[in-house]
Design a protein that fits this description.
This protein is 15% helix and 36% strand. The protein contains nine helices and 32 strands. The strands form five sheets. Strands 17, 18, 19, 20, 23, 24, 25, 26, 27, 28, 29, 30, 31 and 32 form a 14-stranded mixed β-sheet that branches. Strands 2-3-4-1-5-6-7 form a seven-stranded mixed β-sheet, sandwiched between helices. The radius of gyration is 32 Å and the shape is elongated. The two termini are 64 Å apart. Mean pLDDT is 80; it is low at 1-9, 36-59, 92-96, 354-366, 390-403 and 563-569.
Amino acid sequence: MANAGGVQTSSTLNFNIGVLGHIDSGKTSLAKALSTTASTAAFDKNPQSKERGITLDLGFSSFTVDLPIHLKEQCGQAGYERLQFTLVDCPGHASLIRTIIGGAQIIDLMLLVVDVMKGVQTQTAECLVIGEMACPRMVVVLNKTDLLPAAKRQGAIDKMSKRLHKTLENTRFHGCPIIPVAAKPGGPEAPDTEVAQGVPELIELLKAQTYLPRRDPSGPFLMAVDHCFSIRGQGTVMTGTVLQGAVSINDSIEIPALKVTRKVKSMQMFHKAVSSAMQGDRVGVCVTQFDPKQLERGLVCTPESLRTIYAAVISVRKIAYFKGALHTRSKFHITVGHETVMGRVTFFRHAPSEPGTEPDPAPSTGEDPAPFQFEREYLYQEEYLIGQPRQEGGDSDGKPAAPKQQDEKQWALLEFEKPVTCPRLCLVIGSKLDTDIHSNTCRLAFHGVLLEGFEEKNYPECSLPRLRVYKSKHKEGQVERVADDYTVIGRNLFKKETNIQLFVGLKVTLSTGERGVIEGGFGQSGKMKIRIPEGLSAETKLLLSAASRKKPKGGSKGEPAKEEEPKTDSQPISIQMSFKRYVFDPHKKMVQS
């Protein structure tokens, strides 16, 4: 079967379901109960995972069903005859949230597993945050219902369902289905003969929730590899999910992390040989002359289609559940592509005079009226700016919904501690993964899209100066005395140790209205000489002469000068100076408009 792009595809539609939830909520047991075919990484095969009884990596398994009636018309035209559910069992382990984020990019529907005895826990909320960024649909599974007393079971399920609907009412998953299940009756130690409860009903619900995912075979091939192993006499197999584009037998593919290129010898989808695979497919790709120990997880792609970058500019939005401010120069765990590295962040926004300074309440479906451009000027921020709360709608009982933040459009520069390899326009998430998992707080801080990457190791010198982010500076001093009708001596504008030569030529304004230019330093105490091109007004000279008459007289030799008595009726004439300093300008020049 061939599609419009001429790519040979399978007659089975692959639909990726992410099984996410808090640690010990029963995700792996649920995937086992649902599945008939186990893929390479499925069901806690990792030795450490078996020992601890928790999933430490993305596990994959699948089962195939008849194409649902509502998909037959759409899928019939595309040549699909069967529907394959690929279950991505994502870990709930505290330190491995980066693996969940890696899985979120390939998920069509999220299965959020909640322990009915415990409700929403820390990682449940984090999975929900990731789902909002990456998944259009969700089904909630209330697991372990067999642990509820039979007489009170339905009441407890109804109560927990109501609580979850309340939790979800201000998310994109408002009103999503909730279904009770006992994936492993009796718990992990129970014999496998125990029959799971509610699973047939869950499969019917999943079939009803399916849709025809948008699959695009065009563009460069990119695959997220989660396992790599050798088969004697055949070569090395890399298993993963195609994130974009398509791949066929005899295509050349690159492993960018190792800078090596190999030819595709053969391919399989769940033990069936295929000649090609496209976006959304779960596939095993066989290459020759490659040591599997060199790549456990990572990305493979069309040669030279991925970039390795040392820093990046991203669009940025704070995650509402993250407590605390996001400060410039702070370090976060940055998940980008299929990697998580430490990175330092610098926030900035449109310069006030530029268009686009109005708050942007939601990502626009149309063209961005003020996209990021190196030619524009941007204002440096000490921290991410939180907008004003806005009220939205209400629930079915007429109660007002919780206020939502309306944040101004903002960007961030991310500087990575080590280079990362990633596609253009990929999802970026900043987290504080070192936060205690038991602190009951969301560790995901912000998210965005990678807009520009810096590929040079010496990017601070060769590329960053293009980024016109500035700080607004304002200094204030006082006029000490008049030198002549066109010159005054100022003080307190600079510290004693300041090199005043750097400020020569900058404009200043007196509080009496005259405009002047700094001509140079005066003496060694930080004073400066200011030229007034149009001359001082008579009123200003009068004020300054009155002020000079009030100066204290020095005592006799050896005696200190007497302190001036404070005068309530005299106001010194102030000197004001404003300028911009571009943060990434290596020369640290000061610029005035």
